[in-house]
Amino acid sequence: MQFIKPDWPAPDIVRALVTTRAGGVSRPPCDSLNLGDHVGDDPEAVAENRRRLRAFLPSEPGWLRQVHGTTVAIADNPAEAAEADAAVAFEPGKVCVVLTADCLPVLFCDRQGTRVAAAHAGWRGLAAGVLEASVAAMQCPPSEILAWLGPAIGPQAFEVGEEVRDIFVREFPETAAAFVPGQPGKWLADIYALARLRLARAGVHQVYGGGFCTYRDAERFYSYRRDKATGRMASLIWLGGGQAA
Question: Which of 95, 144, 145, 177 would you call most buried, defined as having the most Cβ atoms within 10 angstroms of its Cβ?
Fold first, then answer.
């Protein structure tokens, strides 16, 4: 397996990693380490991929049913496939996880290493406030929170319509800077800039990561916008209880 590890000044107790598409058994178009059980892949292949990932983790991740909303699940006592787009954990060894393939995964921890969270932030979730909900669920001062922006579609590839830009700019005019004109009637959106602006408004200024593009890096990343039928990568974070790969 090949992982991406966050480059951020998190406490030593915090473990985090992001899977790539390498190291699994799924066949095209989900080749090979697809971890999503909702994309038409062979269920046995998904189960085997998750089994392989589990060897690097202290416990079974709290898999979610993601719906582009703002609900934050509690990974300390995971429900069976909770319907949520973020998770928070306060106990060591409890793994928060989100799945993505162009949407932005955001990992969180506090300076003291007492809590972690993960959020799935596509444009709908960003606009609805999933990052702000995740910050609130951590139950600590936002100034104590660190955030890391994982692999997502890059600003040269993320074309959206006027209506999407309007949703952001009407509520938060400063986000206009995250959009540049594309084709007639279209805009190129910088999902990383949007996330940084939303996090800053929530009081989180220690933000790291960004700079990936799932759309352009087909060797490492799945991209729904590029391929339509494709797999999902996992972004995971936990406190102690096992070593990251």
Answer: 95
Let me know if residue 218 belongs to a domain: yes
**Chain position carrying tokens 């209506």:** 163
| Cβ-based neighbours of 147, under 8 Å, separated by 6 or more | 106, 107, 108, 131, 199, 204, 206, 207, 208, 209
Find the CATH number of the domain harbouring 214.
3.60.140.10
Structure-token match 């990383």, residue found: 192
- Selection from 146, 65, 76, 136 nearest residue 99 by Cα: 65
Helices (H), 33-190: 43-54, 123-128, 130-137, 162-171
Over residues 31-72, the pLDDT tens digits come to: 999 999 999 999 999 999 999 999 999 999 999 999 999 999
Is 196 domain-assigned?
A: no
